Amino acid sequence: MSVMVRVLGTICVTILLAYPIWAPQWGSGILGEIAGQPLWASAAIVAGFLALVAFYCRALHRTLLLVRPGARQARPASVWWMFAIPHNFVEDFFIVRAVAASLAADGAGGVRRWASLGYGWCALQIVSLLPGAAGLAGGAMALPLWAAHWLLTARLNRALAARTNPPAVLYR
């Protein structure tokens, strides 16, 4: 079932990404907006965004490394599927689910909030693919949720690391 959801979801995302080709009257979409910039600006936007995604993936990778191996619901390297465009738009939901399940199995606190923020930015990034104002609004709302999710991930990582490697206590 999950393979079917991934395949059908990726097909739908690909259709949405390609709407400037089959429905140019709807506008050029985010890719057209980026392509409409000077080459150096387009390259900087794409490189900057991909760098942020890489740092985010690194944080999620660390999360799964900090979870006890027996509680892990996915391999730590699986979070790097976020770079598999256009599949990543669907896979991100599965990544959030696997990390949330791993955190819950390891007894971490705040997993429901973490998962809710994660599913929120995942859904809004799909909305961001829609043409016009709906897509712009989806993207504008997805970015702060993504940032909040990332910050919560960093907090969870600190808590997991402190549990695994408690700070040394110095006695006089």
Automatic annotation (TrEMBL):
Keyword line: Membrane, Transmembrane, Transmembrane helix
Highest taxon of source: Bacteria
Membrane-spanning intervals of the chain: 7-27, 39-57, 78-103, 123-148
Protein name: Uncharacterized protein
Species, as recorded: Actinoplanes italicus
